[in-house]
Amino acid sequence: MSERPPILLDGVEGETIPLPPPGRRVLGGDPFAEPAGPDPFLARLPEPTPQPAREAPPRRPAPAPPRPGRRGAPPLADLEPPEPRGWLERLVDEDALRRVSALAGLAETGSDYDRFGMSPRALRNSLPFFLALYRGWFRVQAQGHEHLPRRGGAVVAGNHAGLLPFDGAMAVLDVLLHSDPPRLLRTVVDRWGGSLPWVNVFLARVGQVVGTRRNLIDLLQDDQLVLVFPEGMEGARKPVTQRYRLQHFRKGFVEEALRARVPIVPMAIAGSDDQTPILYDVRPLARLLRLPAAPLTPTFPWLGPLGLLPYPVRYRIAYGEPLEFHTRFGPEDAEDPRLVRYLANQVRRAVQQLLDRTR
Question: What is the pLDDT of residues 109-162, one digit of tens each?
């Protein structure tokens, strides 16, 4: 069996993200603002994998050079309450508005975006919507925030379920609301989501990245918190018979955590397994339509697209003690596949135990 392309964290060899023909508007446009210059998100889409015989590429892509003068969010005590912009922001409490406004410092100097395509303005515009989901729809309860590092890079590894990635969105907002200085959790998104026009731009603007190894390396080099779902789509589309049972963990995140010498924080999200109960996944139909899943749920496809909306279940999020593998093993140990697989299984075990206690 041929090896998967080293640039990818998921997917199979030969899969690429299609780009539009020259001259056509790229990615359908920005749902928040028109880009004033080159869009950094476009540069981070995976390159097509060459199919003919080729020389073996480097196993690990080189990280981008560090950014000079990179700024982070200041402590909350140093921030003045911002003035609400529009009637929607008047519905947001002062603390949440101050936290999201603090992320303006993450943008590149002289640009509206950071080097991954994140827009602080888009984050602020989307805050009322996600805050309503967090407090009104999912009624999130969380614990263990003391295990999240206040500074420096780290990988947050969690369970994934519920078909649509509301669990990732709620985790991002939870970290933002319970960190000081405010931190933006950067989710590694499945490459299929990165191929959807409009959706991929929205994800990039609110700080999420397509799941390539290069993106993970650069995020950790920037001392950022990175959220990974090592189950991938297998977790999101698991049926009700597998509720709260973790699927196979991929191991690329462990390799890069060792190389970057950062801890791995286990995270459990209880509730996402109940938001869209999948009775059966019609895999042949999914392959025919080139979709990650063709689910049958109590409401889908009977109610059409509305049947995919999540049920108003309560989310419970818990963060466990960091797994500091990097203190016992060095970057060179990332080249040992058996060790990396063993460590990935240890992370899986920690997340499963945390999930069992959180349910």
Answer: 778 899 999 999 999 999 999 999 999 999 999 999 999 999 999 999 999 999
Measured distance CA(165)–CA(206) in Å, rounded? 14
Report residue 356 as tokens. 């069992």
Domains in the chain, start-ordered, CATH in brackets?
138-358 (3.40.1130)
- Dist. CA 152–CA 220, nearest whole Å: 8
Q: Is the four-CA dihedral 147, 153, 159, 160 of positive or negative sign? A: positive
- DSSP code of residue 311: P
Concatenate the DSSP letters of all residues of 169-194 into one string: HHHHHHHHHT-SS----EEEE-TTGG
End-to-end CA distance of the chain: 39
Give the integer Cα–Cα distance in Å for 14 and 8. Answer: 11
State if pTM tops 0.85: no
H/E segment holding residue 123: helix 120-132
**Would the CA dihedral through 64, 66, 70, 73 be positive or negative?**
positive
Residues 6+ apart with CB under 8 A from 8: 46, 191, 211, 212, 213
Cα gap 36→24, rounded to integer Å: 17
Widest pairwise Cα distance in the chain: 59
Sheet with strand 141-143: strands edge to edge: 141-143, 316-319, 264-270, 154-158, 225-228, 186-189, 209-210
Q: What residues have CB less than 8 Å from 53, skipping those under 6 apart? A: none
